[in-house]
Automatic annotation (TrEMBL):
Protein keywords: DNA-binding, Transcription, Transcription regulation
PANTHER family, alphabetized: CRP FAMILY TRANSCRIPTIONAL REGULATORY PROTEIN, FUMARATE AND NITRATE REDUCTION REGULATORY PROTEIN
InterPro entries: cNMP-bd_dom (IPR000595), cNMP-bd_dom_sf (IPR018490), Env_Response_Regulators (IPR050397), HTH_CRP (IPR012318), RmlC-like_jellyroll (IPR014710), Tscrpt_reg_HTH_Crp-type_CS (IPR018335), WH-like_DNA-bd_sf (IPR036388), WH_DNA-bd_sf (IPR036390)
Residue ranges crossing the lipid bilayer per the database entry: none
Record-given protein name: Helix-turn-helix domain-containing protein
Length: 265
């Protein structure tokens, strides 16, 4: 029995076994699914259920499950039934859309404390893929909707998370539609730094779990342009690149001026 099957074989011992997701079980060859008490969650204020009444947390615990994936595993595909939302416990995820000819637009990166998987028409609008090994908390959307009828704070929290995603979407539209290559790369790096700060991590140095091709597909540039621009930023003393997957932001305000289009020269 492989490690995924061994983990799943224990699901009947869980009080939430009736709510184990078919889509996750169908990927049993890759995903490791297990129960995890909300009391063991170390997200703190980043957690979806942070501050909820004990009774509400107990209700969520009965229907959630924790899913582990290896790097490059697909959590769900565009067009799949949008049965659940996910909260990232560890690792990094990218979401993207594909054109018929294979061209790809990455629409978001998600890290510890982020949520993704919200949909309006009953199906996912994008594909979600693990960049690194990940652990996510899976929350059935229908159960959350049912719970929100007796616990309004759940619906309020969902709205807050969706509103935050909408704000990110508008910023991304601005980046793709109006910014130059230098402005796009600067905006991307500062966005990672700002998000790290908000989740309690150092804003610099930054780990870059995604490759240059992923960055290029997110900000609408070629891989060569992304690499050239980062090299230019290093030459100008704005950043340092100790390794291809790590970056030090040396002059944050100067980099922000580039991002805003107010830099001189």
């Amino acid at each position: 029995m492989n490690r995924a099957a061994a983990t799943i074989a224990r699901r009947d011992a869980s009080p939430a076994s009736a709510d184990w997701p078919g889509d996750v079980l169908a990927r049993a060859d890759k995903a490791r699914v297990r129960t995890r008490s909300c009391a063991q969650c170390d997200l703190g204020s980043l957690a979806f259920c942070d501050g909820f009444a004990p009774r509400t947390v107990s209700s969520i615990r009965r229907v959630q499950c924790t899913v582990q994936h290896d790097a490059h595993d697909t959590l769900f595909r565009e067009g799949d039934e949008g049965a659940a939302v996910y909260s990232v416990l560890s690792g990094a995820i990218k979401v993207y859309k594909l054109m018929p000819d294979g061209r790809r637009q990455i629409t978001g990166f998600f890290f510890r404390g982020d949520m993704f998987g919200f949909c309006l028409d009953g199906s996912y609008a994008y594909t979600a893929e693990a960049i690194t090994p990940i652990e996510v908390c899976r929350l059935p959307m229908q159960r959350l909707n049912d719970l929100s009828e007796t616990a309004p704070e759940v619906q309020h929290r969902i709205m807050l998370r969706m509103t935050a995603k909408l704000a990110q979407f508008h910023n991304h539209v601005l980046l793709l539609g109006r910014k130059t290559a230098r402005e796009r790369v600067a905006t991307f790096l500062l966005s990672l730094s700002d998000r790290a700060r908000r989740r309690g991590d150092p804003p610099s140095p930054l780990a870059l779990p995604m490759g240059r091709a992923d960055i290029a597909d997110y900000i609408g540039l070629t891989v060569e342009t992304v690499s050239r621009t980062m090299t230019a930023f290093k030459r100008d003393g704005l950043i340092d690149l100790p390794t291809p997957n790590h970056i030090d932001i040396c002059r944050a305000e100067a980099l922000r001026a580039v991002s805003d289009g107010t830099a001189r020269g």
